[in-house]
Amino acid sequence: MATIVHLITGLATGGAERMLSRLLRRMDQERFRSVVVSLGDTGTVGRSLAKAGIEVVSLGLRRRAPDPHGLLRLARTLRHFRPDVLQTWLYHADLLGLMTKRLGNVPHLAWNLRCSDIALSPPAAAVRRVLSWCSPLPDAVIVNSNAGRHFHESIGYRPARWEVIQNGFDTTEFAPDPGARARVRAELGIGDGAVVIGMAARHHPMKDHGTFLAAAARLSAQHPEVCFVLVGRGTESTVPALAEPIAARGLAGRIRLLGERQDMSAVYAAFDIATLSSAWGEGFPNVLGEAMACGVPCAGTDCGDARELLGNTGLIAARRDSEALAAAWRALIAIGADGRRTLGMKARAQIVRDYDLGIIAGRYEALYADLIKRDAAAHSPAPLGRLSSAPRPALHRTDNAGP
Q: Is 192 exposed, middle or buried (0-12, 13-18, 19+ CB in 10 A)?
């Protein structure tokens, strides 16, 4: 059995963390032993993984420049678990994984990029710049979107091997659920005849709630039957940075603020239209794929691989353009409940066909198996009678061609 250690900056709820959790639950546990090492604390995702029987180690390091003691603790952890592959998630983990690969006796290192043109603080931007210089060193660099690959190439990433592996979705957990629709709407005081436009996103400049609210204000004057739902960390009604602009736009009675929820499949079921107003930084948007799997048609901004994900099952608007986003919502309202239902089931079929979690987990498994197999081939003796003094061909890809 191969051991894969997944090193990640932290395990609070987020897109990368959710994808890691889903992936490890679906991977073949008879072939791969999965261990998660968090540079920070355990977080909600770590506790959930531990309950599922996956080994989780928290190093409790502060998010700052790595200190020697922290590096030594990480190296000791790696030597303890003796991974066949160290899989790092997010920039800081990529850097620390690279720094401790030799100290931890790790034979293979793979980075995992989860974003595209994300804006960073000066220290984090410096980390990314160092990573771009060092990008030929890991065995492979996984990226979850073509937009992410193109952006990182533009800032100097030149890995030996690119692997584009999109996010995967549990199409059993995320599925149409009329019972959940009725239950959540009753909880929120929303009638069955209302058209609900919902966005699942933490409150962060990247998600551009300002454009969402501007589009909602434009639409509300023309469509009194529409109400809006915001869900995600920081969308609680007690958050002034969100509550104040909602009140200023006269939307206080039209928007439900849910905060962070653990029953997202049920929340999506209550939506008629799912949306995402991100202005920058997206890779392969989890929330759009989840909503599609639940049979909900989507309208999103042209950020990351949203256009590729939605295909012909949803609508794309320009970034930071509230009128374009409102127009996409109007178009989905205009086709009526039956039209949205048909479009939503088409969206679900696309997720099941191309992005089901089993398909995506299989691609990770194939990559890990290939890295380990190549290592075994490099160290196996040549068969008797086949010895040659001719140079051996390279066992690892060293060009920059796509997978």
A: exposed
